[in-house]
UniProtKB/TrEMBL annotation, chains A, B, C, D:
Keywords: DNA-binding. It comes from Caballeronia humi. The keyword tRNA-binding does not apply. This is TetR family transcriptional regulator. Pfam families: TetR_C_29, TetR_N.
Amino acid sequence: MPTTSQDEKIPRKKAVRDAPKRLRDPVQTQAKILAAAKAEFSKVGLGGARIESIAEKAGVNKRMIYEYFKGKEELFQSVLEEAWTSIRTAESELELDHLAPVDAIRALMKFTWDYYLKHPEFMSLVNSENLHRARHVRKSQRFRELHTGFIDMLQRILDRGVASGDFRPGVDARQLHLTLAAVGYYYLTNRHTGEVIFGFDFLAKEALQARLEFNIDTVLSVLRPR
Amino acid sequence: MPTTSQDEKIPRKKAVRDAPKRLRDPVQTQAKILAAAKAEFSKVGLGGARIESIAEKAGVNKRMIYEYFKGKEELFQSVLEEAWTSIRTAESELELDHLAPVDAIRALMKFTWDYYLKHPEFMSLVNSENLHRARHVRKSQRFRELHTGFIDMLQRILDRGVASGDFRPGVDARQLHLTLAAVGYYYLTNRHTGEVIFGFDFLAKEALQARLEFNIDTVLSVLRPR
Amino acid sequence: MPTTSQDEKIPRKKAVRDAPKRLRDPVQTQAKILAAAKAEFSKVGLGGARIESIAEKAGVNKRMIYEYFKGKEELFQSVLEEAWTSIRTAESELELDHLAPVDAIRALMKFTWDYYLKHPEFMSLVNSENLHRARHVRKSQRFRELHTGFIDMLQRILDRGVASGDFRPGVDARQLHLTLAAVGYYYLTNRHTGEVIFGFDFLAKEALQARLEFNIDTVLSVLRPR
Amino acid sequence: MPTTSQDEKIPRKKAVRDAPKRLRDPVQTQAKILAAAKAEFSKVGLGGARIESIAEKAGVNKRMIYEYFKGKEELFQSVLEEAWTSIRTAESELELDHLAPVDAIRALMKFTWDYYLKHPEFMSLVNSENLHRARHVRKSQRFRELHTGFIDMLQRILDRGVASGDFRPGVDARQLHLTLAAVGYYYLTNRHTGEVIFGFDFLAKEALQARLEFNIDTVLSVLRPR
DNA sequence: AATGAATGAGACTTCATTCAT
DNA sequence: TATGAATGAAGTCTCATTCAT
């Protein structure tokens, strides 16, 4: 029931009236709640989020949240599922298997970096969920399914790189993935304290460019045959 | 219950200090509050933390928190200051300037990794503070002072490495530091979701060992002359 | 406990209203809160009033006070508005313009006196608001509107009295009003200390009668032509 | 113990040191507490007053308030006693028996008016005490003694005025006193709401002058033989 | 005499959640 | 489906007061 399924257009009762205010549209109501909840959770965390605030932002009645999501915790879980589905879906659309190994790594890193920049809530949500020791996604079947075959894709790239002589053998795909994500994630998620410590604007165009290049350089270095 | 014994007249300053529970010791009271607060904040975040819970853990009266720290936000700020002071102090005691460049990098990474492992609250606190856009440390003079000259140390190592031919020139000390921290931090802070995704125990001895080595390898790779 | 009976399906709008305890009636809930708050504030002042006590007296959930009135200060403001609206409304219903000047003054003083006696909370509230330097009514648009044209009525009486030779000219309507109110108000509001000082019962029938007569005599004396 | 006894100068231990900070001076400590308490109580009432705030204003340790005055209620009572002693003392120093009847009334009204203006806290305290139904002064022996023979003085003036033909007979001294005080008190104590209602500055020089004259005129009018 | 530390009760307010329509 | 009203628990913070030095 909490699924969004955004495309279906239900012909509602022959459309007796054109419904100027989009009343009674459960699909959209759920979507609005999810979007508002994502914003709220990512801004103040699970503990700091307020159901009332989410309902207001979503423009729906507070009661609807309970109707569709049962409660705060379940809503948080749905938000997490939605967020992770989103990034993994986009990632899979990259079709990295069609690229040369080095290009594939570059593309994946560029994609990850851009995704983080465009969806900073994602990192917040990941942090929050880890603060709570992953107790929400741990219960989610959907979450697990999302990652089956996910590391295989990276492994295939690595294998092709070794075969082509671009990469050294013996690199663990999981380690690589963690590093790949880490160097971008850490920079962006901790940019606020970083700015106080280092005294420069982490989101300035050149700074972003420099960081991305350094990160790609780092990952390619560790992959390079010696 | 807080009083130890009501009627006894202790001859002042005679007993050599055998009172086991040090009553009326503001310094210790504050320390206990800080310790309890650090645990609480790192476990559930600023929004999720409960003053009452902190007071209980600290074994002090709720009121004392307001006496010494004014309020929740200020307490959080104090916790942050204390935590960052702690890691920077320990770090500075490494005396990396006395080590060969490669060894210095290794030592710094090992230290950082071990510190994170021994003080996982530190990463939680950093995450929390960034969730709140660094609004607490931004107000802290003490925090800023903590980091003056902090990056210079790393720069000196880099310079020595370039001079000795161990490192390639042109590497930015701040980028290096961010990467250095990132690869360990990300692995540890996101280990809960990581375990669900990857399906192995991130804190297993061999896993930890493997990760540290991979991280050091990564950083040294990017520093290596080409 | 708040529910009357859970299963019965009342045919909507059929019962002529025999529900004895009107559940879910926001208008009445607000009215009950206001009434209880007026009693509490007038008994112990703004600083001494307890939200919990008000909620109990009103028979509503504490939360409702915040739902409808935002907070203690705003509730106090609403109480003041209601109280002042009440006295001004009753006053305006006297239709003093239809009475002979002397009778109009008498009627106004009798009304004021009786109103104070019947609504002693009013004086308490006025005192409290002045203790707080009128900061609540100052913010109230409704309060200001209440008094437009309010002094004109008295001025018309004065003018008619001067024309008829009953009153001397040159008496300021505002001074008159202040005196008119003062002589009754002071006696009643300070009657507790007054009783300790003077040693008689200020609310005894004869005492009340004597005071009212003295007051009317006083005001008519100062109005009398010389 | 709570008495102030302002004049005695205790020669403290031969004045070993000149005590630059006036430490350990119980008389002054009590006086400072009383002064601060009077200010606080008159500003926010008994319910709104804060012991801590009083101690701070007085520049003494909070504990001292309990040492000298037992508690908040008792402190309030002491403040009331002190305040009423003060006005009655000053009043008695007028020596009205030496003035012509009309002049005596004028002098008394002028005195009362000026006293209210100079000590506006007095009115606040009276209001507060009446809010609490005089429960503090009722317990005070000292308070009662203060007013013995107090109304007799006014009666003597009235009697002399009747004898001289200046005043009509039959006026009750207590009624007169109440009116005398009322017309000034009401104007001043309710000036804040009055200013919002009437829209002029109640404390402006001319306004004060006009009010005093109107008040004296009022009282002399009701006393005048018909 | 004076002080700083400590306390427990209770203040205002907010929250997630359920009820009734 | 949707909504507004209502609730009880709990949260942050404040207060008058006492304890120990």
